[in-house]
Amino acid sequence: MSDQHQNLAIIGHVDHGKSTLVGRLLYETGSVPEHVIEQHREEAEEKGKGGFEFAYVMDNLAEERERGVTIDIAHQEFSTDEYDFTIVDCPGHRDFVKNMITGASQADNAVLVVAADDGVAPQTQEHVFLARTLGIDELIIGINKMDVVDYKEDTYNDVVDEVTQLLNQVQFNTDDAEFIPISAFEGDNIAEASDNTPWYDGNILLDALNALPEPEPPTDAPLRLPIQDVYTISGIGTVPVGRIETGIMNVGDNVSFQPSDVGGEVKTIEMHHEEVPKAEPGDNVGFNVRGIGKDDIRRGDVCGPADDPPSVAETFQAQVVVMQHPSVITAGYTPVFHAHTAQVACTIESIDKKMDPASGEVAEENPDFIQSGDAAVVTIRPQKPLSIEPSSEIPELGSFAIRDMGQTIAAGKVLSVDEK
Ligand code: GDP
Question: Is the shortest distance between the CB of 16 and ligand 1 below 6 Å?
Fold first, then answer.
């Protein structure tokens, strides 16, 4: 065990082996929940497997997932010598893209899984784009299913070249990317160097995870607590609930809700059904503020200190990456923006610059349109008041997803905010 914590995203195309890899990591680090082991120990013995086998972990994870039970590859935890890892949302998961962007789960680093027998696929590209836009620091690339390609070095090198090209395209610094030939299913190069890849002398996966840089310490940003819901509880009154993204909330603090623009003194804070004097980042809290009624505030408001209230944007400038749009995006387009707990229709007022993903340079000033695969700087006007922050100041409140036609069509980071 270690006290350093890492939020790890496992990304990659569907069926390339993300769940299997998570199962393998849990298994190899002894982190499979005890009840999972108990349930299947007997069964494994009955079937003459003579002990607990990795396959049973996977069966169980798959089975529970089908039954819609809580065990899922997201939110699993395992520890290495260096870090306690939490797997944050995995793609394939409903709302993954949205969660990843809106700060519900900020990953520090990511493992990209690419199946050796399939190479770069559409979601490989989408997730690498996202990882890049959202500032994932380092990428470990597991070239998976090496057993399927008979552990051939040539095949591995071809896929490495293909992925390197993709990373260069989105300007991911390939010095910060480490490639490893693995088989999540067979366990090659995960916890032990594999005899099947004598031509490979780099890190095994667990060593690469141990070698990740320490995550940036939490910012000393002011309190920001996006409101998820507002309840009325008899005996207490109005109780907004949400997760503290940054800063500290103390009983007695004077707070402000934006954009509703009301405020008051925090009377009580409750966490896990117990009253607490203060709460910090990551805590899910319900609290009560003197003088605030149920209709004064709503989901999408952000609570912050009265003397440093959350910003409310008249307009904001942002860097966006278009992931999938059937046609082109032009000025005037008004899709729904998802930022923290807010969902607000916003108009793309102007497309200011199109960026060349290969060089990072401005490719075109004031382009007429942008389309799938493009990165651009745009100016956005919310159609209703929206609280949002520059990503450089409060990253947790500085990113958003753009949704239309039931899918995420773009993701972005706020560069600057023009307040009312
Ligand atoms: P995900 O959609 O990315 O989470 O992929 P899964 O982990 O569900 O894997 C998809 C399929 O590939 C499953 O049938 C796995 O058993 C299989 N699979 C995953 N990793 C490996 C591997 O390393 N070798 C082989 N042969 N099969 C694998």
Answer: yes
